[in-house]
Design goal:
Strand order of the largest sheet: 5-7-8-10-9
Strand content: 15-25%
Number of strands: 10
Largest sheet: 5 strands, mixed
Number of helices: 8
Structural class: alpha+beta
Shape: elongated
Order of helices and strands: HHHEEEHHEHEEHEEHEE
Length: 330
């Protein structure tokens, strides 16, 4: 009733609490509630009484063997003609098995989290080793090539000079690839720090840094809540690609659809949409490296950055008619 005095309980309830009907009808049942949970249960009762809404509370009760087990108590108000609560009708459900399962799940999650953190530490060590151990030989290859060409270039045949230049270019490309792979690895682990960004100003700054031979039209007053460093990297990759694949006589556009995604649009060579699913995969390139040099990591970085922000990125194109890359930031 409204005074929290039990009027009736069934035999199952009595066995769960280890009480007689007379004890249940007294206030003794409150003594069976775990002392840490009783204040919370009473608060839930007061709120349910005040709002005349369902009581729902998980708490522990002491059984006949003296041990505590988890239960779910629920009760609905049964109101009289004047809408006054005359009694509560409810049930108590044993959820001990559910709680054990939840505890086991939490333990597995904790163990998996520790394993993931350990894997991340190992990955960081691996990427550092890759960066350190590969850069040394690459620097040696590049410097040796340049020394040979400078000191002996005049006596070397043209074919040999060309081979040295190809060797130096290949070493530089390997260095760029290492940088992009390390960047891709860091993006997955980097903490997102959202700030209010002037996307228009950021795009203009990137275009200036790239020294674009292509005219770039940037929509004014675009803004977003995003990580400045990561969004800069994403825009840089998209703009670099747009400029690289564009006709110098046709502008690149950066804008935002009304209540929609940001976009970077070029009027360059475009691509066949049947291969669109490969665009954002590492090392997948739809053009020949000899015509359009690159590492094949840039768009993979863009996708990772956008996904870290809870958004998505996609592209639309037609061969010979340019391409438009869209991205959202949740």
């Amino acid at each position: 009733d409204a005074r929290r005095v039990l009027q009736y309980v069934n035999g199952r309830w009595l066995r769960l609490f280890g009480m007689t009907m007379e004890e249940a009808k007294s206030s003794a049942w409150q003594e069976m509630i775990h002392p840490d949970d009783l204040p919370r249960l009473m608060t839930a009762w007061d709120e349910a009484t005040r709002t005349k809404t369902e009581l729902r509370c998980q708490h522990r009760v002491r059984g006949i063997d003296g041990s505590y087990r988890w239960v779910l108590s629920r009760a609905h108000p049964d109101t009289g003609p004047d809408d006054g609560s005359v009694r509560w009708i409810g049930l108590t459900v044993d959820i001990a098995d559910q709680k054990r399962a939840e505890a086991e799940l939490e333990e597995r999650v904790r163990e998996r989290t520790e394993q993931l953190e350990e894997a991340n530490r190992e990955m960081e060590g691996f990427t550092y080793t890759v960066s350190h151990d590969l850069r040394g030989p690459l620097r040696a290859i590049m410097s040796t090539s340049m020394i040979l060409k400078e000191d002996f270039g005049q006596i070397l045949p043209i074919e040999a000079q060309d081979q040295l230049e190809r060797q130096a270019r290949a070493a530089k490309k390997m260095g760029d690839l290492i940088d992009d792979l390390l960047r891709l690895s860091r993006i997955s682990r980097q903490e997102i720090s959202r700030q209010r960004l002037d996307v228009s100003a950021l795009a203009a700054e990137i275009v200036t840094e790239l020294g674009s031979p292509v005219d770039c039209k940037i929509q004014p007053e675009m803004s977003a809540e995003a990580d400045p460093k990561l969004i800069r990297l994403a825009l840089q990759n998209l703009l670099d690609n747009a400029i690289k694949f564009s006709d110098a006589q046709r502008p690149v556009e950066v804008g935002k659809l009304e209540d929609g995604p940001f976009f970077v649009r070029d009027q360059g060579i475009g691509f066949d949409m049947q291969y669109a699913h490969k665009l954002f995969m590492p090392f997948e390139r739809l053009v020949l490296d000899s015509q359009y040099p690159g590492t094949g990591i840039g768009l993979a970085n863009v996708r990772r950055i956008v996904e870290r922000h809870g958004g998505k990125v996609w592209a639309e194109s037609e061969l010979g008619r340019g391409a438009t890359f869209y991205l959202t930031l949740a």
